[in-house]
Records
---
Amino acid sequence: MNVPLIDIVIRDAGQRREIDDAIRHILDKGAYIGGEEVAKFNDEFGAYCGGTCVSVANGTDALILALKALGIGPGDEVVTVPFTFIATAEAITAVGAKIRFVDIEPVTYALDPARLADAITPKTKAIIAVHLFGHPADMDALKKVCAPQSIKIVEDAAQAHGATYKGKRTGSLGDIACFSFYPTKNLGGFGDGGAVVATDQRLIDLVTKIANHGRSSQYFHDIAGLNSRLDAVQAVYLRSQLKRLEDFNRRRVSIAKRYEAALKNHPLIKPPVTSPDASHVFHLYCVRSSKRDALAALLKEKGIGHGVYYPLSLHLQPAYKHLGYKKGDFPVSEQASETILALPMHPHLTDQQVQTVCDTLISFKG
Ligand SMILES: *Cc1c(COP(=O)(O)O)cnc(C)c1O
């Protein structure tokens, strides 16, 4: 039996019809940019997160727009983690600010609040807290460091749609939040998409304006902005998926519970841990093993999908060589890169597929 790491094809015939009908309606009207579906999606996703939503072209743009709306640019510094997808750091580079990395906390893989103060300088304007793999960062501990110095907190929630921290959903945990709707994310489209969510209407108005050519009205522009919009057809698909997101996330959690039970007391594989303050949405289910490569070989032999997220920390990437970091600077991130392995995780896994993965994990002897 083959067990794919990720499966994003919608097979539910009813849902397919619902999406096809709405897309046909858009094609019939020729209303491809903006319009009713985008407005409805903004309302629905904003309400889901507990804020106001502006949808944009992708998650990387969402981060760039959030930083721009906070007024961050050349001369400023932004703190984030080296153990994340590169888009988090690219957004800081794109607005012309300087990246300062801080190591992650070893259990949740999120920015370590205990190390944050070391990276703060008088130029620090914001931090980007990544809710990696679907587990929220320790927001209260981060706020305790940031608030007295008026440092803004940006959530990179691209992997954590619907995850909660102390009962509140991602998107409403910091000053401004960024989401991606790349197809493989917990809430994904059939192309690119993203969103910025915030409760501060001033920030939302600024993001809306910057994302739409800095426009005050047609052909009148207050500032030089950019073009970053969600397509109407993506909004249709995302509205349909949003209705099912809670069910999808629940299914992910129930698969995670079965993996965890199979890994209980396993001598060579450690399951992920969820903080008592958080609910995890398992964008990825990443285990740790000092015998990672042997485990990957066994999974491959059994036809079970797996992947390494992420094999090289950002501070060691050629793209960020100029920042002057070296091996050993962020040992927790580096160790994660060397020992982590993602197992199949998506809502469409069958119980039988999950059982195959569990049996294989239990059989692993190194
Ligand atoms: C996917 C992702 C992004 C970027 O999203 P895109 O829509 O691909 O631009 C940013 N941060 C993290 C942590 C991601 O996983």
Note: The radius of gyration is 21 Å.
---
Amino acid sequence: MVARLPIRDDLQKMDGYHSAQVTVPVRLNTNESPYPPPDEFTTELGRRIADIAWNRYPDRTASALRAAIARSHGVGVDQVFAGNGSNEILQTLLLAYAGAGRKVLTFEPTYQLHAHIARITGAEVVSAPRGADFRIDQSKLADVFSTYSPDVTFVCSPNNPTGVVEDEETVRAIIETAPGLVIVDEAYAQFASWSAIDLVDESRALVVTRTYSKTWSMAAARLGYLVGPKWLVEEIDAVVLPYHLDAAKQIAGALALEFTNDMNSRVREIVASRDQIESAFSTLPVDFWPSGANFILFRPRSMDGRKVWSELVEKGVLIRDCSSWPGLTNCLRVTIGTPEENDLFLKSLSEVLSK
Ligand SMILES: *Cc1c(COP(=O)(O)O)cnc(C)c1O
């Protein structure tokens, strides 16, 4: 029998990606939409999927999907690239612009997969701390960039798991100061007040990534995309696996955009619920950070975060335990759910905190 083979030295100490998938009635831990897409969408999708020529490879350039995405943002079709979730977009960008011998910068705390995927590509990950209230500190940018000279810099806005939306001024300063590629991850953009897509330009090394997993209620589809300069899209097209995007997904992504009004009204409902939860938080013994996304980061003032998390699980409510993450001691993150789920969460939380 062959002994278990060692993987690459630089990957041996890495953990996989963990988010507890516990089966409980109220799941508010992965920032999914609590609402499915509209029935008209699912019915029409079924019809169109039946017409796929399943014996043939799909359109390698996903041209109809890219055109639909480009139209929705008022950008050129050659400025759009789609992938299997924005995670695949990030991986492809990092394979092309990071990898062995190159450096990737993150502002911590932020989305763990930025550093994780960068390491898998063989890149060295360097990080700078965020300033007060988890904002990127503009006054430190010049220092950070001259210390590290990163080939790729990540900005996550709204930032996961803090919910903080960076100012346009900060993002502009980062683009102007960063020596390499800047990736703005806008997984939650529709919940926020502005988007860096307007800053995309042929003369800037800037890409903005988006996903169908959150606002579009399509986490099961695994679909994401980027908007960036044409020259970058050309390079990325050459790096990604051929025929990576299956035919059903290409159809689903373009069709979803015909239901933009439904998406916007789901977003409005979630934002209204988010406001309600934030007001409820003001009356509880917790600190929280006002959010521009579909989740809120909070910290119990006088109880252990991990304990609050597990007592909530016992009551059938699953949220995200960030209490042991660097820079987030005792913090927990709750995804906005349906009004019923939010009520159950708030009721359970106040019971746990008042014990
Ligand atoms: C959820 C999330 C994503 C989504 O990734 P997909 O691969 O598109 O599901 C990307 N970035 C951030 C910051 C997220 O929170």
Note: The chain has a mean pLDDT of 96.
